[in-house]
Every structure is written in C-alpha cells, then in structure tokens.
Design brief:
Layout lengths: L11 H9 L10 H11 L7 H8 L2 E5 L6 H5 L9 E2 L5 E5 L3 H7 L6 E5 H6 L6 E5 L7 E3 L1 H8 L3
Helix pairs in contact: 2-3
C-alpha cells in the first residue's frame, strides 16, 4: 500500500507558476530583437531608421570559428568571422542577438565574441559576403555587403 500524497504550503497552480518564473525560463526580448521584429513587420516603412539605429547600436554575438586558436579568439584587435556557405555558393556570416538565438541554430558553438554591430558593419570585409542576424528565428534579417555598410555602418 502506498503512502498518501500530501501538499505542504502551496497548491499545484502556484508551484507551476513559480517554475515558469525561474531565471532559466526568463528570456527577455532584447532591443535588437524588437528592432528586428519591427523590420520584419514593416520592411518597406520609411520610419525604420529608428529600428536600424537600435540594431546598429546593439552588441551581437559572433561565433568564433572552430579553427581559430585561443590567442586569435581573445585578441581585441582581430575578429575571425565564421563564414557559412549557402546553396548556390553564397557566403554568409551569422551573428546573433542572444545566446538563446545562437544555440537554436548553432548548438555546437562553444565560443563567441560580443561585438557592436555598427562597428562590425563599418569594417565589413568583402563585397560578396552577406550578414545574417538571428538566421534561425522568425525575425531574421539577411543583408548583402552593400546593405550592411549602407544600413548598419556607424562610425
């Protein structure tokens, strides 16, 4: 015969609610993600300047390529970009607005650098290299190299 189950102090609903409020389950939307949502909802709107400014002033996570050594990965004067090749041979650099966004698309990434997006855009390396922000999300934004420099570059 099994012992009776007793509840001490809390009812089931309160326990479930408390579990949902733990920091592990708290993923606040960042200003960069709100800006991406705005751009996704109204891509042709003339008032997207504020969203682009917010995005450009945000820090993004840049995965450190597997072949980068520890010294290069930590050097503040150098940034190794992870270049992925898409169908058709188009090359794209993925960056992310949060660890959660990065883990959803690239769960194997163990190292990353935080970089101001506007500064990265101002020094964008090649004419044929695209930038994809939160590539695995609903609010993803992919820009050609011209788009990166024109829309996001800040001094």
């Amino acid at each position: 015969m099994s012992a009776p189950i007793t509840r001490v102090g809390r009812n089931t609903a309160a326990t479930r609610e408390s579990a949902m409020e733990t920091p592990a389950n708290d993923h606040p939307v960042t200003p960069a993600q709100r800006a991406l949502d705005t751009l996704a909802e109204t891509p042709e709107a003339a008032d997207n300047t504020a969203a682009l400014d917010t995005l450009a002033s945000s820090d993004v996570l840049v995965p450190v390529p597997d072949d980068a050594n520890d010294q290069d990965a930590a050097d503040p004067g150098m940034l190794a970009l992870p270049v992925l090749e898409q169908q058709g041979g188009r090359q794209v650099v993925p960056v992310f607005t949060s660890e959660l966004e990065m883990a959803d698309l690239l769960p194997y990434v163990s190292r990353y650098r935080m970089v101001p997006l506007g500064a990265l855009a101002a020094q964008w390396p090649a004419d044929d290299l695209s930038l994809s922000i939160d590539a695995g999300s609903e609010h993803r934004l992919t820009l050609t190299s011209d788009g990166v420099r024109t829309l996001l570059a800040r001094p």
